[in-house]
Amino acid sequence: MAILIHKYFPKQHYSTLFNTKTGFFLRKEDPGFSSPYWSECGPELLDISITRWCDRGCPRCYRESNTAGKHMSIQDYRYILDQVKKMPVNQIALGGGNPNQHPDFSKILQVTRQEYGIVPSYTSNGRGLTQEVLESSKKYCGAVAISAYPPYEDLTNAIQKLTSIGIKTNIHFVLDKESILTAISWLKEPPAFLIKVNAMIFLNFKPLGRFEKKIGLLKESDQLKTFFAETQNPHPYKIGFDSCCVSGLVSYTKTSPLFFDGCDAGRFSMFISEDMKAFPCSFMMNTHQGYDLKNHNIIDAWKDGNEFKVIRNRKWDNKCNNCLKKQICLGGCPSWNSINLC
Ligand code: SF4
Ligand code: SF4
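Above: inputs. Below: predicted complex with iron/sulfur cluster.
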């Protein structure tokens, strides 16, 4: 059953509306006021890595997850939820590692939705979708995303398992200089296994982790124009992007800015690692220290953590200062200029 959650933030003169069934989210400023640059009361979206455990070894894994990876304890997870229940958080994206292979995964989904009223979703490598995991996903999750890494056997099996019981299934596709060719061919002629998916979400590859130097960046591709043009055509599934693609959207498409926003790391979203450190975004784990949540509160990290303040007060280079798209794009990625597509 859909529940509409309305929240009002009088100090910043705006409100949010969230539909728990469809995932529709709207942020609306009061008449006469401008849209907020960041949410002073805390993040709207939490991205939590509940484990670094994974047995697939995907080459594009920025976390370099493996079977030595540690799990977040359920006590730590509850400790986070206890703090965020007074914040604007409506959704939690669970990641890893492979989150659904956390030993307490079903409990984590149940606690998030039933006890705290927050809608969980997760991204899986497609393995470990047991009957128990599928049942709790159906009961508690907004959507499940499967990473599209070759060979695509795990992906096809997972899509079949999830869609056959009516779970909203999205695909996360990491775009780089090589994989963009597969993306274009899937957009032109969708393989049969994709027909039942809800959305294809494209993610801009970051030069971090396992194959940091062996994979070419997306912006090195000479196929960007073709790719973005293809995304504008009708498809059997919806098309989405991570905010790390925003410089490409503003450069290569005429998509209305009503449908996207610049990077919201540290403005509306926060990442928490399995060892309880807070970062503006998950990719900063490899390069930044993070804010220790074992000894500090989440709201203090959000408001006063140095990495959060730095990312909010991002400095723009001359190229961005002189760019007509800057109010929509917000300078692309504030952390890795090298991934910007303009
Ligand atoms: S120049 Fe800066 S603001 Fe303009 S599209 Fe590129 S990253 Fe975005
Ligand atoms: S800081 Fe960069 S990598 Fe992180 S979410 Fe923003 S655009 Fe993406």
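Residues 156 and 193 are 6 Å apart (CA to CA).
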